[in-house]
Write a structure and sequence with these properties.
Chains A, B: Keywords: DNA-binding. The structure is a homodimer of 426-residue chains. Chain A is built from 13 helices and 13 strands. With 426 residues, chain A is an alpha/beta fold. An 8-stranded mixed sheet of chain A has the order 2-9-8-7-6-3-4-5, sandwiched between helices. The first copy, chain A, has a 3-stranded antiparallel sheet with strand order 10-11-13, with no helix packed on it. Chains A and B meet through helix 4, helix 5, helix 9 and helix 10 of A and helix 4, helix 5, helix 9 and helix 10 of B.
Chain lengths: 426, 426
């Protein structure tokens, strides 16, 4: 183990030369490896293919006799609501089933608040300023929604147990322009951490100055465990009810990474007050989402146990990939004082921090050797990582052999950039 | 044939008595007949059921090798674009494929203009006033979108060849607040008329004062013929291009009434300039719509000819219903000078006009005898038919025997209300 900062200039030079040789050897292979997005791999999609072979005759009628081929049923089939209510630990009447994308549900929820306002408050677009709190590193697509609608983003640090709640509490209590906060509370994107019970309780007990403040609780990875001892997340809606804040949270989830990213079922959950308020404009927006696909999912998974068993198959495919990434990172970077990273129990990412001001250079170098990473900075609002240090590793998509090469190249790039940086400073 | 207004008071009394007897006989049957919405009937859905039995293995990959189960392909599979481009007579690069609802695409298009504006203009929500022209009678769900977003609706009369274009031209040229017009140009809802070539050309040649004025061209019934000699609709996008107005129109359509209302594929078409502008925010809204369902539709229909053949089966089911309605209307109401109605070559509705100030009363009376009609007034902005005379008949959903009863009751109600009205005046 070498602690880079203790090395002499000559030792550093030698190290850099050795790394450059390894780097160039990979570069010569003209690789094309993609780790940009949290996409399931082909094997993960294979295991659900038989859902698409459920015969038409079994998809025609829902349990209550509704013709699923025809119009209607704005907020989802009762059995689909029941399935997702179980998954999200809420009541079926606290559920709205959407189309195939929870991102679209989140976008719609923000868009609706912009144009129509939330439960009688002035529409956000007519308020002087609207701000969202963005615990970071976080999910770039959340931030993109804010940016599109001109919502000012306030970065708050992520800790090992969730967002920095001291700051969150102060911000929402003091500023009426703060209307929301983005959360990925379980196996967070990208850190892979799960909010502690205390953090959830502090969320539920928030006393926002704005009546139309909402927590956007994107529970994207609620059943996406990689370990037999999965993280437990306290139920935010229940906690909000206890704290007298039942209208403060919108929960989102989908089967995008359970069944199919391209043809799954998305869902949102909230208090019955919020749900009925949303349905008033939802009924103008659509007559109803795809009920056949809802029924397909219900027939296939049946209940939460069915989903849980299915997710074990996903874990069986993903865990070796995550393990391998962690092994290589440890082997290449361990003890060198140049990078730190999380070891998540679930989700889709490994978040790595380099030395300050190295992330962009690492991503650039990796790109030049044929390894596409999520854009450095993407995990922060406006794509600007203040310390230029966070990189999101998405190990799910590439086949194991490609992933191995990609991570090795990535680790070489980190060492190379770090050694040069230390050399400059020395 | 009796012309009601020529009858003496005594003759009218006798007529009313006879009608009341017939009405009460039906009322005694405690019927429950629904003609409220333009929903396909069960038989129409049956003929497409086998689409849902296409094996999973045939749905995995698009022609270009894309894994349709995974994320991506924002604007639709190339083969789906090609199919709908053929149907809408546009280029494939003028197409965006949506989810299962063209209503949702229209809603999104208005919502986007409200929040984000159209190609660089000030968002509608930040403009002092936004108005839409609503040719009426028209489609209540179009009007509902305007009402939700606080868009002021200006009623313009429908003629036998389309909207009153003299008025439309004057309005859009003179008022910058007018941002849109709703059109169902083929087999219009509810009149069943198709815009003439001249009307389409006048649309294309509009010189709106507002740069962000758009024609919302809801071609919902483009292939929904009931006759072997279908109406022909001139292509608005081509006409707009010729008139130097290529960005002025958004076209919408779906397979809701081709395949499945609950699980079809929606589509919009516009100039490549508009399409690329829409995609800039669409990419924030979703990663992509359901590609499996797109592929299912492409494999099933293959091309426009496939759709056309399929639509002949629909016509085979619907034409007898339309014929029967028209026959009963003629038999009961013909020559009495109390109602007029259209004989459409396609679409989903028969539009009927009573004497002034009779429609609500007719609907109420029908309701009391167990026949639910589309709410009287619904075909006008704000649900207010200025002359209270238009009623939309939706004959597709009920089985023939039920439809027969429903229309007979309906026709009795018209006669009864008209006779009483004439009696009052006399």
């Amino acid at each position: 183990m070498i602690y880079y900062e203790t090395l002499s200039k000559d030792e550093l030079k030698n190290e850099i030369e050795a790394l450059e040789n390894r780097y160039n050897a990979f570069k010569g292979q003209k690789l094309k490896l993609d780790m940009t997005r949290g996409k399931p791999c082909s094997d993960q999609l294979d295991i659900c293919m038989d859902m698409l072979d459920i015969p038409a005759k079994d998809l025609r009628r829902s349990a209550d006799g509704t013709d699923c081929l025809n119009y209607g049923v704005l907020d989802g089939l009762p059995e689909a609501k029941a399935l997702f209510a179980e998954m999200l630990e809420v009541d079926a009447n606290e559920i709205i089933i959407g189309g195939n994308s929870s991102l679209n549900l989140m976008y719609d929820t923000v868009a609706r608040a912009m144009s129509l306002g939330i439960t009688g408050e002035i529409p956000w677009s007519k308020q002087e300023k609207v701000k969202f709190i963005c615990p970071s590193p976080g999910y770039d697509r959340h931030f993109a929604i804010c940016e599109l609608f001109g919502i000012e983003m306030i970065t708050v640090d992520m800790r090992q147990d969730g967002p920095d709640m001291d700051t969150v509490e102060k911000l929402v209590a003091g500023d009426e322009a703060i209307k929301g906060i983005w959360c990925v509370p379980k196996y967070s994107n990208p850190d892979g951490i799960t909010y502690s019970d205390e953090v959830v309780d502090r969320f539920a007990a928030l006393r926002p100055k704005a009546k139309d403040f909402r927590i956007f609780w994107d529970n994207a990875y609620c059943v996406h465990h990689l370990s037999d001892k999965p993280d437990m997340l306290k139920n935010i809606l229940t906690a909000c009810k206890k704290a007298g804040n039942e209208n403060m949270v919108y929960m989102f989830a989908s089967t995008s990474k359970i069944s199919f990213p391209g043809a799954g079922v998305a869902v949102m959950a909230s208090s019955t007050g919020n749900i009925s308020s949303i349905k008033k404009s939802l009924t103008i927006q659509t007559i109803g989402h795809d009920k056949i696909n809802q029924l397909r999912h219900v027939k296939y998974f049946r209940n939460l146990e069915g989903i849980t068993l299915h997710m074990k198959k996903h874990a069986g495919i993903l865990k070796p990939k995550f393990d391998m990434v962690l092994e290589i990172l440890e082997e290449e970077l361990g003890g060198k004082g140049i990078a730190s990273w999380n070891k998540p129990n679930g989700g889709y990412f490994i978040s790595l921090n380099t030395l300050d001001n190295c992330a962009k250079e690492v991503a650039k170098l990796a790109q030049e050797a044929g390894v596409a990473l999520t854009k450095a900075g993407a995990t922060y609002p406006y794509g600007k990582d203040p310390l230029d240090k966070n990189i999101r590793i998405a190990p799910t998509m590439p086949p194991v052999e490609e992933l191995k090469k990609a991570i090795e190249i990535f680790a070489i790039c980190i060492q190379l950039v770090s050694a040069k940086k230390i050399m400059e400073i020395a």
